[in-house]
Amino acid sequence: MDALSRPLTDRTLFALAEGYAWLPNRMRESGGRVVRTRLMGRPTVALRGPDAVRFFYDERHVRRTGALPEPVVGTLFGHGAVHTLDGEAHRARKELFLPLLHGDRVAGLAEEVARAWDEAVPEWGGRPEVVLFDEVSVVLTRGVCRWAGVPLGEGDGDGAEALARDLVAMIDGFATLGPRHWRARRARGRQEDRLARLVEDVRSGGVAAPEDSVLGRVCRHRDASGEPLDARTAAVELLNVIRPTVAVSWFLSFTAHALHRWPEIRERLRTGDAAYATAFTHEVRRFYPFAPFLGGHAVTDLTWEGERIPAGALVLLDVYGQNHDEKLWGDPYAFRPQRFLERPAESDELIPQGGGDPRAGHRCPGENLTIGLLETLAVRLARLTYAVPEQDLSIPLGRIPTRPRSGFVVTDIADVT
Ligand code: HEM
């Protein structure tokens, strides 16, 4: 009997409990780059390494439709989202995102976010303490909504805080079935309702959306069928631009953690050395945990490095494990931005936002945007002076998604630029 057909005990609960360490631990035990297990009742094979990335992103091997668990779709991505499509339907939908997230657009968003940051910092200076994660999520929400042409909505002040809370909740609750999960579902329901009404208002002419804005483009986009997106799906995809932009808050809290632990890096970032800032953002995205792994279904019976993968098995790409693979990085647990100046990463080695070609496959179309935003904000953070009071800065690997437990509290903020 094939190892995959044997009734292996389901490991879903172990995976949830061990979090980021689950697959890397199993890989270490197996002594290779393949793990066989069972998740959500299915035989499962996990892979890692640049060749595995190419294998995983080949649509003849692995497809996504129906592979993502409902609790993830119902919180993080939204039903009908681009993440859940394959083939022609996926390519047509991806066409919506790619032109919105490249070149001048990246600079435009970085400018809006920098403006929101510069407006917020003087106000932080007047407070006894600031939780950086929370404040940065509000800055990113303001910046991305101005850039995308999306109103902030109801709530205290300009509505940015309430919207930021909802966007953070959608990300925070996808990998648990506890209270964080139900908060995420409520947040998504609220924002999908609001944005679906906005899409209808734009289409009926009641609300103006600049032709070239993200809002305007989403309202006009036509799918592979030639039909416009229904209002709910349009709302889902609007959220798929705004929500992951606000996810950069996680990377900024990791940036603050890195600057605190390795103060010499702060000095170098502060100079505004552009190549170093890029290397630093790569190292933050490699070193700190965000996406644990990606998954899809085997389209047909497959063989990977001599191992049989039956049709329908769950295939996982070990993202966190690959970003910490000694064979690729030498000293994976050292935080060393310099490594990217010494040797630029080869294609499909660094995969915090997926691998392969973003135009052809599911790789994150917002990677350049993430890098641009993180460079802008990391240099600004390095140029602030602040004190870091006693707090819990541990980053629990059993929690997905994780971050410094305290959210990174700072006091006595002043801008020294
Ligand atoms: C897909 C990570 C920022 C839009 C993905 C994927 C990952 C990821 C791991 C899945 C790749 C796959 O399934 O193969 C991240 C991280 C971010 C980030 C860690 C920063 C914190 C962004 C931004 C945007 C964005 C800023 C847009 C403004 C998307 C979209 C997809 C995606 C639309 C779906 C692509 C597809 O299925 O074809 N991202 N992302 N992401 N990301 Fe990002």
Automatic annotation (TrEMBL):
Cofactor(s) required, per the database record: heme
Keywords, sorted A to Z: Heme, Iron, Metal-binding, Monooxygenase, Oxidoreductase
Domain of life: Bacteria
InterPro entries: Cyt_P450, Cyt_P450_E_grp-I, Cyt_P450_sf
Pfam (any one): p450
PANTHER family to which the protein is assigned, alphabetical: CYTOCHROME P450 26, LANOSTEROL 14-ALPHA DEMETHYLASE
Protein family membership: Belongs to the cytochrome P450 family.
Protein name: Cytochrome P450
